[in-house]
Each structure stands twice: as C-alpha cells, then as structure tokens.
C-alpha cells in the first residue's frame, strides 16, 4: 500500500482558529502528544508572526526529534531567514513557504502581477533551499488560480528546489472530483512533478475538507495536511482523525497507509479540547462523545449481541475506553438490565419490569439517565416500595394506563405495526399496543420497538 505522509498543522493553521491560541508550554505539550500519535510532520508555527510563535517552533524543534518540524514563511527573505533561525535545533527541519497565486489575491491582496508572483516564488524557494534541504511550497488559493498559471508556478518552484508542493483549497471552495482533477492535471502537465511529493490542504467551509483531501490522494497526492478535531481558520481544516480512519476502515477504497497510532486519536483530541477549552462537538466523527454511543433500543440490542451490527470500527481502535450505551428513553430493557448488572444488581423479570417502567418515565423527563439516577431508582424499587411493586405488577390496569397516557409508545407501536417492513413487530405487538414493552412473556422484539 502507498504510504501517506500526515502533516499536522494543529499548531499553526489550527491555532489560527478563533479561541484556539495556545501558549508556548501548551504547544510543547501538544507537540509531544502529536509525536506519540505518530504524525510525520508537525507544523509548529509561523516564526515571524510573533516572538511567542518563534519560541514555540524553537522549543519544539529542540525537544521533539522524530517527526519533521516545519516552520511557515511568506515568500520573502526575512520570513525565510526567521523560520530557519527558529528551526536551527531541529533534527529534521522543513521550511514551508506560501505565496498566493489566484488573480483575486494577486490583484487585491498582494498587488503584484503574475510575472512578479512567479519570480517571487522562485526566489524564495531558491533562498530557502540554500539553507535547508527540505522545502515545501504552497500556492495559496490554488483552487481559484488559473490552472495554466498554477502549473507554471509549480514547475518553477520544483526547478528552484522545492521537495513538496502543497495545493491549498484555502477558501474551502472546491469539490471532490474537481480537486482530484486538479491534482491529476498537475501530474500530467508539470515537468519534474514526479520527483516531489504532492500535498493536499483543504478547508472545510462546505464540509468537504476530508472528502476533497481523499480525492486528492486518489489522484496521486501523498501528503495530507490536517488538524486534530479539524480545527483551523473559519470552518477548519481536514480532520486528521477522519482522514486516518477513513483509510483504515476502508482500505478496499483507499489502499493507503499512515503510521498514525490510531489508539492515541481520542486522547489527542481530548488534550486539544482541554488546552484550548474549545469542546469537541458531540457528534464529531471519531472523537465526539457520541461517536460510539448508542441510545436507540434496536441499536443497543444489536450492539450487545454483536458490536459489528452498528459499529464500523471499535472504540478501542481510536482510544475511546469503551462504547457507551447511553440510557435514554429510547433504550431497551436489555441495555437497562446490563447497566443494572454493571452496577451490581441483578433482577428477576418482574422486578426489572418495574424498574424499566419507572426508568422510561424518568428518561422522558430528564433525557439522559445517569448511573446515580438509576441507583436511586433501584433502591426505591427494591426497598420501601417493594409492596407497591408487587401491586403494580399484579395489576394490568394499574401498571399501564398512567404510562400510556404520557408516553409516545402507543403511537410508535402503531406506526411500527402499520409499517410493512415491521410486520414481524406488529405480529408480536399483539392485542394491546399498551402492553408491548411491559408484556410478561419474554420477547426479544420488545426491545426493538424503542428503536424503530
Ligand atoms: Zn489553511
């Protein structure tokens, strides 16, 4: 399988996201974690931007020895010299130069012509190459650059000594096929491109950063620039954990490998969130707190029987301690019984029925039932309320009406019964929709109803 270089820019592009700035100590701590995670390149900062950035790059270069340490520089001598100064102590330094190439950037931001741009890029790379063997060049806003001109710039920087050519979708504008096509065009038209590494750098403004990066890889890019939790300018960068796991879970589609130790993904994500105090969105792929949580009864039931029913990767493979079965109103009796067992309580069917009944009422009110709530409920049922329990369980009328009145179950069950795909469920639903989840006879299907 082809090897993909993982270039982490959490400390540079990621740090540029609002609220994510880090001090030198914090950057150092995160760089050490990125080293444990196994990324190939750490972009440690933009040395000319501030003294703090300079110091961070310097200290990371001095103490993190395995990965390549990159420092960012604009395409001018002062920036390149400052980056090189910061990288002095690095075991494997890289100077990363960028210069915008799109007409809109040239005209309004840089106020230079295409010819001046070409010359400036060539000069900066030549100078960097005289200092450092490993030089990366990024034509900023490449995806909105005239393709013929982009080819010209890329060819010029390769001739000047660049070893990696990065193609940034700076504004998050491109689409997967389009971006893949751009990488293919560069490979077809640029002299010398087969001697350098092509890299992707995609922003997530349309939610396509990961898809675009993978499309680039399929067309020959062999380095992906990305960040932990996908942080970065505006909507962020391609998310490192998603890129890595997409390749790991689907080698049939993406036969590429990285040396990232995926079991450190979750702890890396947690560390970043802790340092920046920017929480990870709960439904974030791979590292969100709900990424491996299953609440729906049908899912929980399936998970308990065989995790492969709803899990395409194990939580352990990305370092999440365990898949969490969240107890909420959609949970089934099977999951509830298991949690009770984990809390040290085993129940007879009738006792469990009563706990389940109360659990459902509670879950409807508080959404998420914590262990402490469950323990309280168990105590309530097993102690003073014991006589009430037997009363309740012995009487169908006493047992169901109050719940039926407040729970959406009858409607859900009725809907399931009307659904032709759920014929087996309607069969077991029997005479009274109200009695389904609390029926005395055991039926595997009762758990399913809650997850339909
Ligand atoms: Zn960027």
Description:
The protein has 452 residues and is an alpha/beta fold. The protein folds into two domains: 2-276, TIM Barrel (Alpha-Beta Barrel), CATH 3.20.20; 333-449, no CATH class. It contains 20 helices and twelve strands. The chain has helices at residues 24-37, 51-63, 77-86, 103-110, 114-131, 147-159, 176-189, 209-218, 240-249, 265-276, 297-305, 333-342, 349-366, 371-382, 386-394, 396-399, 401-406, 409-418, 423-429, 445-449, and strands spanning 2-3, 5-8, 41-45, 68-74, 93-100, 135-140, 164-169, 197-202, 223-226, 256-257, 293-294, 324-325. Strands 2-3-4-5-6-7-8-9 form an eight-stranded parallel barrel, surrounded by seven helices. Strand 4 (68-74), helix 3 and strand 5 form a beta-alpha-beta unit. It is elongated and about 85 Å long. The two termini are 41 Å apart. The model is unreliable at 386-452 (pLDDT under 50). The chain binds zinc ion (ZN). Residues 13, 168, 170, 201, 203, 232-233, 237 line the site of zinc ion (ZN).
């Amino acid at each position: 399988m082809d090897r993909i270089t993982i270039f982490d820019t959490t400390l540079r592009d990621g740090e540029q996201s609002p609220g994510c700035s880090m001090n030198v100590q914090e950057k150092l701590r995160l760089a050490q974690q990125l080293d444990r995670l196994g990324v190939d390149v750490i972009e440690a900062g933009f040395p000319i931007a501030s003294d703090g950035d300079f110091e961070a790059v310097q200290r990371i270069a001095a103490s993190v020895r395995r990965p390549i340490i990159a420092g960012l520089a604009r395409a001018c001598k002062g920036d390149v010299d400052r980056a090189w100064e910061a990288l002095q102590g690095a075991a494997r330094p890289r100077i990363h130069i960028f210069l915008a190439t799109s007409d809109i950037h040239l005209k309004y931001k840089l106020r230079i012509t295409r010819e001046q741009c070409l010359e400036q890029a060539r000069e900066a790379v030549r100078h960097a190459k005289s200092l450092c063997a490993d030089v990366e060049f990024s034509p900023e806003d490449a995806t909105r650059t005239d393709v013929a001109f982009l080819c010209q710039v890329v060819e010029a920087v390769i001739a000047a000594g660049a070893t990696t050519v990065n193609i940034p979708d700076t504004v998050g504008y491109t689409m997967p096929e389009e971006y893949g096509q751009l990488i293919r065009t560069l490979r077809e038209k640029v002299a010398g491109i087969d001697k350098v590494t092509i890299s992707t750098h995609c922003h997530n403004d349309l939610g396509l950063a990961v898809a675009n990066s993978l499309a680039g890889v399929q067309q020959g890019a062999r380095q992906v620039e990305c960040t932990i939790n996908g942080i970065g300018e505006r909507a962020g960068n391609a998310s490192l954990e998603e890129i890595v796991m997409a390749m790991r879970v689907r080698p049939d589609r993406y036969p590429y490998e990285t040396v990232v130790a995926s079991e450190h993904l979750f702890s890396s994500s947690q560390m970043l969130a802790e340092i920046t105090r920017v929480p990870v969105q709960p439904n974030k792929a791979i590292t969100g707190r709900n990424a491996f949580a299953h609440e729906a009864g049908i899912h929980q039931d399936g998970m308990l029987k065989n995790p492969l029913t709803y899990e395409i990767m194990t939580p352990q493979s990305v370092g999440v301690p365990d898949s969490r079965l969240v107890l909420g109103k959609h949970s089934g009796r099977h999951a509830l019984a298991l949690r009770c067992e984990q809390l040290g309580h085993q129940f007879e069917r009738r006792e469990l029925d009563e706990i389940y009944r109360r659990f459902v009422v509670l879950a409807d009110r508080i959404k998420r039932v914590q262990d402490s709530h469950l323990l309280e409920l168990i105590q309530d049922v097993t102690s003073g309320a014991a006589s009430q329990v037997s009363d309740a369980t012995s009487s169908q009328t006493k047992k169901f009406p109050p719940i039926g009145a407040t729970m959406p179950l009858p409607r859900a069950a009725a809907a399931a019964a009307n659904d032709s795909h759920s014929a087996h469920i309607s069969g077991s639903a029997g005479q009274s929709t109200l009695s389904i989840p609390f029926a005395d006879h055991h039926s595997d299907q009762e758990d399913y109803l809650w997850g339909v």
